[in-house]
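User: Reviewer 2 asked us to show a designed sequence for the structure in our supplementary figure. I'm pasting the structure tokens here. Could you produce the per-position amino acids so we can include them in the response letter?
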């Protein structure tokens, strides 16, 4: 129905996926930078690219790559952690300013005692004593205190991004998981993370990435980071209709509760920083609200949906809740792309009840209903993508299924 091309070149097996500011922060199912970079180089419209849009920007891979090329770029995400990371990754901080403020933090770390910690109440963290040792909480609080009290406003977010990773890594969660699973008790007994050392190491890593970013980037492009929901609308005051030249994005493969756990992964930082919707982020992401009626029409995955419904009605409703939101988002995205503009959607075909849902076919089908022509779908292996090899879609202990091994880069052009 839609052309698929297997191209091992797109696996980028031996590539460094942590170049520039891409090294700043882990994030679930990140699109590797080489994909965004190569799509810009090889699939840009003939008339050129002045504006790129990413409607599900996550940690900002497309935004960074557009910045390297000197192209104006706009991204949106409902996850406040994603917006924080994307903002910091696309900001040209001066190295000397970051180094100077880092030295201030290090000086205060040298003086640490528990008596110096001002905030010792952690009620904003769900079940904090279950997830953290008292020593880690105190040291994390002290780091927050230093940043809040002694770092100028324009540099705080750089160090908050570092702290965000540390907040998760020193918790008792199993670091191989994006969902909130606690380490076994025997491992917790020997788990003694060095909070300050981790913070220093990650800061040094990020400074190296910043230097590379500053030295290899056209600094004249405009970067816009927003929190609007493309499933509902795309505000005209931010993006006018038919003004976007190219969309490069990797949308969720399904709802966050049963696919890639964006909400659970982000909850550590979102709670620590008291961000909005810290506890219920999964409910506001695509497919987060249960729907029982299909709001789209499809030929290419009709049989798949019918099979899932015959096996498990609940799972069917979860699937169509996501697809309803996804198709609305595509319709809204289609309106802001100019004639001749190109969309590149990097998707995965997840499995539900043992049945694979070909999201690449659905993506092409819905875009074609909105005035696009399918060019090609590139099939690539996922050698480096930050996803667990097994997931627990039901959150029931011991129930595991294999995750997605291939991605599909769906490329279409707007014809009218």
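Assistant: Here is a per-position design you can include in the supplement:
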């Amino acid at each position: 129905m839609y052309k698929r091309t297997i191209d091992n070149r797109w696996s980028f097996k031996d590539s460094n996926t942590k170049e520039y500011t891409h090294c700043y922060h882990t994030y679930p199912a990140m699109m590797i930078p080489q994909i965004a970079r190569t799509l810009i180089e090889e699939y840009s419209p003939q008339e050129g690219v002045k504006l790129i849009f990413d409607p599900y920007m996550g940690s900002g891979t497309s935004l960074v790559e557009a910045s390297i090329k000197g192209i104006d770029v706009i991204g949106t995400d409902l996850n406040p952690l994603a917006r924080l990371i994307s903002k910091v990754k696309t900001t040209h901080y001066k190295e000397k300013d970051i180094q100077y403020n880092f030295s201030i933090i290090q000086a205060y770390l040298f003086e640490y005692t528990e008596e110096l910690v001002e905030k010792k109440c952690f009620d904003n963290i769900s079940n904090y004593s279950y997830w953290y040792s008292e020593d880690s909480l105190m040291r994390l609080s002290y780091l927050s205190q230093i940043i809040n009290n002694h770092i100028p406003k324009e540099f705080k977010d750089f160090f908050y991004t570092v702290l965000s990773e540390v907040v998760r890594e020193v918790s008792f969660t199993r670091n191989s998981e994006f969902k909130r699973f606690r380490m076994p008790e025997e491992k917790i007994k020997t788990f003694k993370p060095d909070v300050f050392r981790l913070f220093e190491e990650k800061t040094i890593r990020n400074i190296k990435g910043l230097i590379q970013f500053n030295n290899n980037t056209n600094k004249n492009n405009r970067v816009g980071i927003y929190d609007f929901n493309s499933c509902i609308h795309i505000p005209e005051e931010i993006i006018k209709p038919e003004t976007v030249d190219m969309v490069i994005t990797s949308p969720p493969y399904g709802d966050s509760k049963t696919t890639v756990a964006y909400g659970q992964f982000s909850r550590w930082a979102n709670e620590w920083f008291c961000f909005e919707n810290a506890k219920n982020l999964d409910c506001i992401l695509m497919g987060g609200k249960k729907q029982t009626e299909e709001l789209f029409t499809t030929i290419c995955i009709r049989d798949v949906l019918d099979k899932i419904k015959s096996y498990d009605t609940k799972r069917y409703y979860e699937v169509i809740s996501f697809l309803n939101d996804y198709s609305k988002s595509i319709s809204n995205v289609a309106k802001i792309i100019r004639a001749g503009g190109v969309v590149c959607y990097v998707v995965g075909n997840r499995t539900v009840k043992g049945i694979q849902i070909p999201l690449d076919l659905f993506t092409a089908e819905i875009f074609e209903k909105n005035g696009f022509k399918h060019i090609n779908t590139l099939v690539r292996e996922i050698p480096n993508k930050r996803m667990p090899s097994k997931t627990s879609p039901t959150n029931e202990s011991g129930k595991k299924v294999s995750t997605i091994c291939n991605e599909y880069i769906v490329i279409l052009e707007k014809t009218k």
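For the response letter, you might also mention the following. Confidence is low (pLDDT under 50) at residues 387-403. The CA atoms of residues 135 and 174 lie 19 Å apart.
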